[in-house]
Amino acid sequence: MIHSLTQDPAFCLMLTLLVFACGQWLFERSGRHPMVNPVAFAILTIIPLLLWLGIPYAQYFEGAQIIHFLLGPATVALAVPLYRQLHHLKRLWLPIALAILASVSVSYLGAVQLSQWLAMPSEMGQSLALKSVTVPVAMGLSGQLEAVVSLTIVFVVITGNLGSIIGSGVLRRLGVRDPKVVGLALGATAHGQGAARAFQLHPESGAFAGLAMALTAIAASLVMPLIHVLLNA
User: What confidence tier does 78 reach under pLDDT thresholds 50, 70, 90?
Assistant: First the structure.
């Protein structure tokens, strides 16, 4: 009975939604504490459940791929709150552009340098360098930077979870209070999950996080391959 149920493609979708709903309930009950992150809860719960039920990842992805499909429309929907902050963006376009370029460059060079210090394989270092780029773009850049796609996704997911859990607390301890700056920092470093956290903090933070995530993806697509070529010339 259980085996036939788990073979149904809809089972994986329902399992994902149920686990995430439980995580969201715990998140609300905790007073929206960042440590009780519903996405992190879902990841840490679903993995052992799949192992216990004997469901391979390929089967799980096939059943829950509608969620993967909706990632694109959800990202595009960030344009709505972004449009509402258009007057701020027109006034701050230069510092925003410089901040995004600095973030992308430091993220890439820092990851490459760290991988060299730790004597990591080159492919692992390149995968780590893509940690702050949203998944679809990071997957596309993996081929250009000679990175491992599966490893890149792991680093991106880990970065997004850590950024959404500890990012706002670190910024607060550093004395960063401006919602626009908080949003830019979370969106540029923790992509979609950082943007989701920013929306929980303040609508203005969410708008700027969405902007930072989009600009980081564009800047990374242009800057990272160029730096990679220069370093390996």
Answer: low
| DSSP notation for the chain | -HHHHHTSHHHHHHHHHHHHHHHHHHHHHTTS-TTS-HHHHHHHHHHHHHHHHT--HHHHHHHHHHHHHHHHHHHHTTHHHHHHTHHHHHHHHHHHHHHHHHHHHHHHHHHHHHHHHTT--HHHHHHHHTTTS-HHHHHHHHHHTT--HHHHHHHHHHHHHHHHHHHHHHHHHTT---HHHHHHHHHHHHHHHHHHHHHHH-HHHHHHHHHHHHHHHHHHHHHHHHHHHHHT-
Answer whether 182's CB lies under 8 Å from 199's CB: no
pLDDT digits (tens, 9 = 90+) for 130-184: 998 887 788 888 888 888 888 888 898 889 888 888 888 899 899 988 998 999 9
Angle, vertex CA 132, rays to CA 86 and CA 70, nearest 5: 70
Instruction: Give percent of the chain above pLDDT 90.
Output: 11
Strands (DSSP E) along 22-135, which ranges?
none
Asked if pLDDT for residue 3 goes beyond 60, the answer is no
Q: Which long-range contacts (CB under 8 A, 24 or more apart) does 139-144 make?
A: 140/221, 141/220, 141/221, 141/224, 141/225, 144/224, 144/225, 144/228
Q: What mean pLDDT is predicted for residues 3-14?
A: 74
In contact, 209 and 194? CB cutoff 8 Å: yes
Backbone φ and ψ for 130, nearest 5 degrees, come out as -95, 15
